[in-house]
Specification:
Length: about 90
C-alpha cells in the first residue's frame, strides 16, 4: 500500500492509511517507534518494540559453524541487466 511523505518544517510525515491504524489499534497522538533496518522504515507500536529490537541475528560464521563440506566459489552468469542494476 502506498503512502505519501510530506515535509513539515525540519521533519517529514507519512500519511498512514486508516485501515492500518485501525488494525494495529493505534490511537491519535500515540507514540510509536520509528527506525531503519536493512533499508526499510519500520513503524511499530511502542509496546511491541522489544519484540523486534531484541531479536539476535546470527553472524555468517555462526550460521555455517557446523558446515563440514568444501566451499569453492564459482562465477554465476545472472544474464544481462534488465533494470537499473549496477554491474
Amino acid at each position: 500500500m502506498d503512502a505519501t511523505i510530506q515535509r513539515v518544517k525540519d521533519s517529514f510525515i507519512v500519511h498512514l492509511p486508516t485501515s492500518i491504524v485501525k488494525n494495529l489499534k493505534i490511537k491519535e497522538s500515540e507514540t510509536v517507534q520509528v527506525f531503519e533496518e536493512y533499508g526499510r522504515i519500520i513503524i511499530q507500536k511502542t509496546d511491541t518494540a522489544a519484540l523486534v529490537s531484541d531479536i539476535v541475528r546470527p553472524t555468517i560464521n555462526e550460521l555455517f559453524e557446523e558446515y563440514e563440506g568444501e566451499y569453492e566459489p564459482t562465477a554465476i552468469d545472472w544474464g544481462a541487466p534488465v533494470g537499473k542494476e549496477i554491474w
